[in-house]
């Protein structure tokens, strides 16, 4: 019990530090209360991953953690700003429920044993990203964005599989909050409870919860970024401010995250076209392309330096590997895969049906409020 009590105090300190990051984001950057947490989480992923590639993982964690506490002291005590106790309390309850749900849980999905759990644990044990010195990582070109947030969450708590799951599900909650920014909760408070309950049920059934696979996490981060950008559709500088960390985080969660990063770039370009001019839209598009390409290039460079042969493996994240795989399979196999995807959409399983309901409820929540 003493160990659990210590863990609870550490979790409280981590929560206060994260609250400080959110309060500083709201005060200094003038962000919406529901967008600030997702912005902070995406920035943490981006900063810790970039610092890890530079060999400064632990200093980055100390800087973020102490910066959050400094932000809390500066905003709450010095500036006498009132914390958002309602949102903080709601998030604390949700994290508490996740801790209760996952207490003592162990990972059992093969993908976790083969990569995701190993990639999450390595930085916690070594205060560094995996490199050529380790033979534990099989899929060496997979970006470590999810592991970066787990490192932030668990480094000061404990290295436990149940906490890995709490961290990843907490990240999904934080990046889903921008949806609430589009809802007029003052006029439609009665909508909050049924919408929240429905989304909680769908969140449980539309995906396996006891796994560290990042597919659904990537969706939450991607759509959270797009929703944040669209909230500031009349304020291009602030839209860029919230969009850039989400683009970088999407790229560093998974190689296919570039898809969501591109859609965020499209949203930013549309905002620039609406609020400024065509020239501004073109400059915005080029800037977003530079951010996405730069983030991706830095990771490829790290992989080349750390694992010289990693980009030649079947699962490598490189154009050469994709072209080679396409040549081996041939046009017929590619067409067959496309037809199978269409058939799967025409005959969805239970999980896919829950996914579609989740999207429809989210859209209805915005339209009705």
Strand content: under 5%
- Taking pLDDT < 50 over at least 5 consecutive residues as the criterion, the unreliable ranges are none
**Beta strand count:** 0
Largest sheet: none
Shape: globular
How many whole angstroms does the radius of gyration measure?
21 Å
The topology string of helices and strands comes to HHHHHHHHHHHHHHH
Gap from first CA to last CA: 45 Å
Helix content: over 70%
User: How many distinct helices?
Assistant: 15
Mean pLDDT: 82
How are the elements arranged and paired?
Layout: H1 2-29, H2 36-53, H3 57-78, H4 85-102, H5 110-126, H6 145-154, H7 161-176, H8 178-181, H9 189-205, H10 215-231, H11 236-253, H12 257-275, H13 278-306, H14 319-346, H15 350-368
Helix pairs in contact: 1-2, 1-3, 2-3, 2-6, 2-7, 2-11, 4-7, 5-6, 6-7, 7-10, 9-15, 10-11, 10-12, 11-12, 11-13, 12-13
Give a description of the structure:
The chain has 369 residues and is an all-alpha fold. Helix content is 76%, strand content 0%. The chain is built from 15 helices and no strands. The radius of gyration is 21 Å and the shape is globular.
Care to give the gist of this entry?
With 369 residues, the chain is an all-alpha fold. The protein is built from 15 helices and no strands. The chain is globular and about 65 Å long.
């Amino acid at each position: 019990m003493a160990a659990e009590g210590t863990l609870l105090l550490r979790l409280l300190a981590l929560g206060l530090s994260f609250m400080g990051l959110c309060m500083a984001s709201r005060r200094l950057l003038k962000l919406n209360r529901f967008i600030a947490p997702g912005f902070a989480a995406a920035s943490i992923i981006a900063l810790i991953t970039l610092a890890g590639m530079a060999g400064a993982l632990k200093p980055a964690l100390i800087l973020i953690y102490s910066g959050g506490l400094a932000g809390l002291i500066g905003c709450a005590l010095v500036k006498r700003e009132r914390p958002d106790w309602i949102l903080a309390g709601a998030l604390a309850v949700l994290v508490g429920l996740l801790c209760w749900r996952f207490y003592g849980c162990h990972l059992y999905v093969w993908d976790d044993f083969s990569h995701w759990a190993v990639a999450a644990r390595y930085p916690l044990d070594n205060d560094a990203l995996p490199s050529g010195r380790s033979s534990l990582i099989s899929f060496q070109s997979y970006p470590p964005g999810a592991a970066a947030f787990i490192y932030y969450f668990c480094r000061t708590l404990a290295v436990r599989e149940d906490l890995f799951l709490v961290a990843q599900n907490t990240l999904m909650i934080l990046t889903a909050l921008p949806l609430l920014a589009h809802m007029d909760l003052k006029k439609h408070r009665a909508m909050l409870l049924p919408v929240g309950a429905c989304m909680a049920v769908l969140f449980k059934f539309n995906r396996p919860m006891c796994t560290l696979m990042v597919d659904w996490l990537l969706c939450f981060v991607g759509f959270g970024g797009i929703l944040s950008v669209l909230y500031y559709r009349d304020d291009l500088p602030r839209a860029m401010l919230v969009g850039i960390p989400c683009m970088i985080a999407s790229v560093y969660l998974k190689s296919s995250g570039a898809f969501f990063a591109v859609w965020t770039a499209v949203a930013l370009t549309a905002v620039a076209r609406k609020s400024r001019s065509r020239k501004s839209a073109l400059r915005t598009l080029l800037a977003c392309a530079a951010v996405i390409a730069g983030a991706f290039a830095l990771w490829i460079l790290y992989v080349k330096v750390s694992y010289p042969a990693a980009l030649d493996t079947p699962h490598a994240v490189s154009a050469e590997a994709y072209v080679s795989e396409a040549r081996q399979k041939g046009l017929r196999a590619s067409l067959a895969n496309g037809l199978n995807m269409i058939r799967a959409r025409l005959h969805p399983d239970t999980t896919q049906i829950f996914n579609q309901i989740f999207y429809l409820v989210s859209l209805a929540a915005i339209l009705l409020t």
